[in-house]
Amino acid sequence: MxxxxxxARVANELRRDIAAARARDPAAQxxxxxxxxxxxxxxxxxxxxxxxxxxxEAGMPLVPRSMxxxxxxxxxxxxxxxxxxxxxxxxxxxxGVVIGETARIGDDVTLYQGVTLGGxxxxxGKRHPTVEDNVTIGSxxxxxxxxxxxxGAKIGANSVVITDVPPNATxxxxxxxxxxVDGRRPEGPDADWIHLPDPIAEAIQGLATRIxxxxxxxxxxxxxxxxxxxxxxxLRPVRGQNPAGG
Length: 246
Ligand SMILES: CC(C)(COP(=O)(O)OP(=O)(O)OC[C@H]1O[C@@H](n2cnc3c(N)ncnc32)[C@H](O)[C@@H]1OP(=O)(O)O)[C@@H](O)C(=O)NCCC(=O)NCCS
Prior knowledge:
Blueprint: H1 4-24, H2 33-39, H3 41-57, H4 63-75, E1 78-79, E2 84-85, E3 90-91, E4 98-99, E5 104-105, E6 110-111, E7 116-118, E8 130-131, E9 136-137, E10 142-144, E11 148-149, E12 154-155, E13 160-161, E14 169-172, E15 177-181, H5 199-222
């Protein structure tokens, strides 16, 4: 049952969660632990989850799920009582966060509002992500399926991630793809998703080159002055952000 040991464990976890909020939330600088405990929705959701999880592990029916439903109504954060969450999780703002039944979260992870650690369909068994230590997941990111997010990885806001993420990688976009691994741009033939070839421009460029050659040949034969070769621009927007960037 929920004895003294469980109580001490939950109290320890709560202390570490509050320390995480103070360390990682710029808005928490200079705010006392008591005020954070009283007013941070992410802390309320975690406290409730840690108790609900202990009760769930002790085999208690109904109460853990009821706590989860009540906490969702109050904070907008839904955490299944069976989800395994390490120490020092920080959920900033919180609203719209969903953490599924078989999700596992390591130590010192940061989640922003609107993050989903969800399944992809109706399969059973392990179907939610495993998030290793020191991962940051940006607001609105959806991580779907039994994938593993390697330690120290960063997931960009609004990304949709359906494959494993290597440790210390930065993943952005939909589908999520690495734009940094260990601080460097990934290399290899399929690594550059942003600067894709433009086959139509390349075909027109080939024709323009042939026409230029012909014009030069005709100019030489006729004694006319050579014209400047035609310019062919790639068919990409030249202003604003590149939409392929995420
Ligand atoms: C991904 C993130 C963590 C930055 O990580 P980083 O390792 O410092 O990466 P950088 O800022 O160097 O960006 C790397 C590349 O990804 C792009 N990028 C960054 N975040 C992106 C996003 N959310 N979507 C699409 N592209 C993104 C950058 O433009 C950059 O592109 P480039 O390689 O063409 O220059 C950050 O951009 C992010 O999304 N943080 C979430 C913050 C959040 O949710 N805040 C909510 C507060 S309420």
